[in-house]
Amino acid sequence: MARRSPGFVTKQPHSKSRGGCLTCKRKKIKCDEARPKCRYCQQRKFDCEYVQRFSSKTPESSSSHEASPQPLSNEVDFYISSSQSLIPPSNTSIGTFTSLDHYLLQYYETHVWQRFVMWDDPVIKTLHKDVVPKMGISHTFLLYSLLSIAATQSNIQNPSKQVEKQALVYRQKTFESYKTALQRITPDNYEAVLATGTFLLSLVLPLASYTDEEYLDWLFSLLKLSEGLRVLASLRWDHGIEKLSVYPLVRRESRILPPPPIINPATHVPTGTLGATPISPNPPPTYASSHLAGHNGLFLPPLLTSVFENTVSLQDDFGLYVATLLPAFQALSPIFLSLYYYHITEDFGIRISVFPSFLTSEFLHLVRQREPRALVLVAWWFALADLVPQGWWVGETVRRVVAAIGREVQRGDDEVAKMTVCGAERIVQVFESEGGEEAAKSVFDGWRGVRWEVGPMDLAAWETAQLVHLESLFHDITV
Questions:
Q1: Cα separation of 3 and 17, whole Å?
Q2: Which domain holds residue 151?
Q3: Which SUPFAM superfamilies does this one have (predicted)?
Q4: Which tens digits make up the pLDDT trace of 19-64?
Q5: Looking at the structure, do residues 435 and 307 belong to the same domain, yes or no?
Q6: Mean pLDDT for the stretch of residues 177-199
Q7: Between β-strands 91-92 and 95-96, what pairing exists: parallel, antiparallel or unpaired?
Q8: Host H or E run for residue 11
Q9: Fewer CB within 10 Å: C terminus or N terminus of the chain?
Q10: The model scores a pTM over 0.85
C-alpha cells in the first residue's frame, strides 16, 4: 500500500509559524509572533490574541492538550448535567481525557454528529454517532478532529473565548497528527484515515468578514482537501473498499441513474469505465457490466450546454484547456440528472458532496488562477449545494462564495462565462426568496423537453421497463 497521499501535503515556502496569533492562523498567513501585537494585526488595528502554549511531554499531566488553565465556569458551564462531573479520567489516543474533552465528545455524540447526516439513513447515523467516535479513541488524528468540530459548534451555541481557542488547538493537532498518519498508512489505520478525511472539509470554515479574494482562496483550499480524500479512497477503490465499515462515508451515489430523458448529440462524451466516471462513480464490483448503456450524453441546463459547446469548439487551438474543463462538465451532469429523477433526496446530496472528487489537479490550478469558466462551473455546483437541507456548507457561505465568483467573472472579458454565472446566481436568489424546492424547480426553467414534475414519472417508467427486462431474461433462462 502506498505510504503517502500527496493530495493532503503541500510544500511550504517558509518555516511554519507554530505560535502565531489567532488572526494570522485564521487568515493562513505567517505571523511574526511579536507581543503584545504582531505586525499584521498592529498595522490593521485587529485584535491580536495568542493561544497559550501547552506541553504534551509528560503523560502525568491530564491537561496537556488544553489551551489554558483558566476556570471554565467563567464563560460557559461545561457541567451541563451533574453526572458529567463524575465521569472518571479515561485513557484515549490523546492521553487522559480532561473534563473539557469529556464534555466535547459527549456534545459531539448528542448534537454535532447530526450535522453530517443529511438524510434519514440509519447506516450513516450509526457511523457518525457510534462507530466513528469509538474509532477515534484509538486514533489520535480522528479524535482531535471530532473534538475540534465539537468545540467549534459548542462555541457557536454558547460563545466562549476559551473554547474558541481550544477549537484552534484541536484543529492544529488534527492536521499535525494526520500528516504523520498519511506517511504510514496501514490496514489498521486506513479506515480512520479515510473517515478523518471526510471531516477535514468542515474544519476550516470561512469567516463572515472574508473579502471576495479570501472566499476564493478558501474555496480553493476546500477543493484541495477534497482532492486529498479522492487520493486516499483510490488506494482501495478497486480492491474491496465497499466492504469497509466506513465505505458509506465515501460512496459517490446511492441510486443508479437512468439515462437522460433527452439526448443532445452535441454533448456526447466517452462513457469511460465502470467505477471511474461520474455516471458510474462507485467501485466496479457494485455494478453490472451493462450499466453504461445509453449514458453517452451530458444532461446540462441550456446555459451550461451553451458554454460546453463553446468550450469544445476551442479544441483545435486550446486542446489542453478543453481537456481540463471537460471532467467538471461530466461531473455536473449526474447532479442535474439526479435532481430531475429523484428530486432533493439522498442521492442528490451525495453527488453534491463528491463533485470535487472528480476534478483534476489541472482544473484546480485553473480555479486558483481565477479562470472564468472553471469558476463558473464551481459556482453552479456551490449554488446547487445550497439545496441540500442539511450540510455544514449551506447558508451564508454558499451565498457569499457564489457572489464572490460572480463579481470576479464579471470583471473579466469572457462574455460566455459572464452569461453562464448568472444562472448560478439566480438559483441562490430564488432559494433566498422562495425556498429550496422552488430553487430546485427553477433549474429546469427554459429547459426544452425537461420538466420538474415529469422526472419521477420518467423514473417509474424506466424502473418498470427494467423489471420487465429482468423477467424476460429469467424466462429465457428457465425455458
A1: 27
A2: 91-205
A3: Zn2/Cys6 DNA-binding domain
A4: 677 777 766 678 888 877 888 777 766 667 665 433 333 333 333 4
A5: yes
A6: 94
A7: antiparallel
A8: none
A9: C
A10: no
Residue 91 burial (CB count, 10 A): 10
Q: Where residue 192 falls among pLDDT bands split at 50, 70, 90?
A: very high
Confidence of residue 98 (pLDDT cuts 50, 70, 90): confident
Q: Write out the H or E segment, with its range, that includes residue 92.
A: strand 91-92
Residues 110, 391: Cα–Cα separation, whole Å: 17
The whole-number average pLDDT for the span 275-298 is 72
- The cell numbers describing 279, all together, are 455516471
Single residue among 205, 229, 262 that ends a domain in this structure: 205
Q: What is the 3-state secondary structure (H, E, C) of 121-186?
A: CHHHHHHHHHHHHHHHCCCHHHHHHHHHHHHHHHHHHCCCHHHHHHHHHHHHHHHHHHHHHHCCCC
Residue 55 C-alpha cell reads as 506541553
**Domain boundary residue among 162, 189, 205?**
205
Asked whether residue 324 falls in the same domain as residue 442, the answer is: yes
Are residues 311 and 192 part of one domain?
no
Average pLDDT, stretch 382-400?
Answer: 83
- The length of the chain in residues reads 479
Q: Are 382 and 424 in contact (CB under 8 A)?
A: yes
